Amino acid sequence: xxxxxxxxxxxxxxxxxLLGSMFGFVxxxxxxxxxxxxxxxxxxxxxxxxxxxxxxxxxxxADYPWAAGRSKVAADGTYTIAGxxxxxxxxxxxxxxxxxxxxxxxKTAMGEASTIALTAGQTRAGINAALVREARITGKITYPxxxxxxxxxxxxxxxxxxxxxxxxxxGDVEEDGSFxxxxxxxxxYKILYSTHDYSDRANNNIVQTQWHGGAYDFSSAATVTVTxxxxxxxxxxxxxxxxVISGTITGIRPPASYLRVxxxxxxxxxxxxxDARGNYTIRGLVPGKYTVxxxxxxxxxxxxxxxxxxxxxxxxxxxxxxxxIDLTSAASRTGVDADLDTIAGKPTAPSxxxxxxxxxxxxxxxxxxxxxxxxxxxxADGTPVPRATAATLKIPGSLAGKRVSxxxxxxxxxxxxxxxxxxxTERILTVGSPAVSGxxxxxxxxxxxxxxxxxxxxxxxxxxxxxxxxKGATKSTLVLGTTHAGTAITAKVTGTKSGFTxxxxxxxxxxxxxxxxTPTISGTASVGKRLTAKPGTWTSGSRFxxxxxxxxxxxxGATKSTLxxxxxxxxxxxxxKVTGTKSGxxxxxxxxxxxxxxx
Length: 599
Known about the structure:
Layout: H1 15-23, E1 35-42, H2 49-52, E2 54-59, E3 69-72, E4 78-84, E5 87-95, E6 102-103, E7 116-118, E8 123-124, E9 129-130, E10 135-142, E11 152-160, E12 167-172, E13 178-184, E14 187-197, E15 209-211, E16 224-226, E17 232-238, E18 243-250, E19 259-265, E20 268-273, E21 279-285, E22 289-298, E23 304-312, E24 325-326, E25 332-333, E26 338-339, E27 342-343, E28 346-347, E29 351-354, E30 361-365, E31 374-380, E32 383-384, E33 392-394, E34 404-412, E35 416-421, E36 435-437, E37 445-449, E38 458-465, E39 468-469, E40 477-479, E41 489-496, E42 503-506, E43 520-522, E44 530-534, E45 543-550, E46 553-554, E47 562-564, E48 574-581, E49 588-591
Parallel strand pairs: 1-8, 1-9, 10-17, 18-25, 18-26
Antiparallel strand pairs: 1-4, 2-3, 2-5, 5-6, 5-7, 10-13, 11-12, 11-14, 14-15, 14-16, 18-21, 19-20, 19-22, 22-23, 22-24, 27-28, 29-30, 30-33, 31-32, 31-34, 34-35, 36-37, 37-40, 38-39, 38-41, 41-42, 43-44, 44-47, 45-46, 45-48, 48-49
Signal peptide: 1-31
InterPro entries: Carb-bd-like_fold
GO molecular function: carbohydrate binding
């Protein structure tokens, strides 16, 4: 099937820019009034300007290939490009038929064209051109053996020998390998063959950019001379097979299209995406020495959506330190592998450490980076947390129920921004403040209440004496025994809920557990007799106070360890309450058994 020949930009694939190069689209900023460029165009005898369909375009270096202004050449050869802003311009004369393209003043390429400086409102006349018949370069290329040409597209570009930045004209290569570059002025050129392989098939291995004569750079390329207007120069060229670098990526395993491997050799580069198993093959490399980069977040449309250069081979942070692969004479290099989870044993991806619960503090562990300044940004459910740009984050209540992650930013080699993202935590749990109630005394029962947690949280408990876990004490209550005497008691409550982080909180410590006893009364319960309160065995150093009762009613002034019975006590039962105190311990009151009724 015949391919349509067309002018294509070597380094610009964007459709808008391509069309701008072809048809001289005018920059939207061009005003309706301003400076102007005018002149007269002539054509050789036998070719009318109407038939040639000539257009004149004005360009600035900054906006090329967008034309700042343009004008059709009238039948009498005159033209005027109006509405130009002050600046420096270069002017091209583009014929759609029969005539060679050229730049003012009788130049082949933009890089050698004369400049035209305009001030505001200036009219510059006399920018004339005497166009000549177009010359052609024809030829045929041969692809390396085994190439499937159905999905291979090659374009031949003609460059002036004095301008490597702008091609003069181009022609597409047909499936049989033939091509034609037209609209050329007589002169000396260098021919570039640029190939794009859309098949991604393993048997296609063509150097993507090579020059006529077998060179891989402009300075070394052979020259081709076109001697006469209307003439034709025939070429033949066999495209070179390229060098190959291959390997396997392990560690991080996103979809295959999200990992890109690049081979770098000055202006010559090659790229490949991994397959589902992490394997890759970079083909079509020119001979030379390469460094290899491993990139993450490579978009499925072939563009880097969130560029992250993870590392260089072997375990290097930057290109200057990367191991060099020499393909000057070797045809291929296998085993160029990478584990993207680590660099020299240190994880590359950031992680979140700490306590991801409301009121807790989390910290960003940045992963392996070169010696660069790092910046941080915390996110909750993918949305940046306001003013959360430090390496740590104390989690406010507003983040309850959300998932937290951190991004780490750095400006690394060649002003190349990198961003790496941690995995998200589970949803943030609201943690309550446990409180212990009950008397901290041997024989008493303590109760812990969890406090206010995320609704639906389930709890487990662990009691501690002097900071040491009490074996088997895993309920919400604890009966204090003699082994707990003299220790402060705490309770840790752990809360769990599906999809949420696990949280734990510990109560405030009680006072030390007091050892107590039930007091006894000695003496005869008869009027005129003396009763004596005996406290029993308490925590050593305890101090006691007393209160006597007659049939449950406090006896006024009866606050000593003894009580002499009077007629007012007759027929009443007597008890005594002993209160023990000691600094750092719980104050405990214990009441004796009743005596018989006083006689």
